[in-house]
Amino acid sequence: MASGVVTSSGEAWTWGEGKAGKLGHGTGLNVSQAQRVEALVGRAAVREISMGDSHTLFVDSYGSVWGCGENKEGQL
Description:
The protein is mainly β and 76 residues long. It has strands at residues 2-6, 12-16, 31-36, 46-51, 55-60, 65-69. Strands 1-2-3 form a three-stranded antiparallel β-sheet, with no helix packed on it. Strands 4-5-6 form a three-stranded antiparallel β-sheet, with no helix packed on it. Strand 5 and strand 6 form a beta hairpin. It is globular and about 25 Å long. The model has no long low-confidence stretch (mean pLDDT 94).
């Protein structure tokens, strides 16, 4: 299980099971405390997060979609 939140300033924070890199932290490690998704800092003001079994999608303020995790079935 994994979770994610978006702050009022548009930062994405994720934690939980990191399978296939779905948390966006550059590894597949599990994370027990919320960590900011550094790859999006300064690039996207996140408005929404949607988490799947092995991937995560982030929607920014322009409507662009950013993704991380496994893509073996074209989900990204």
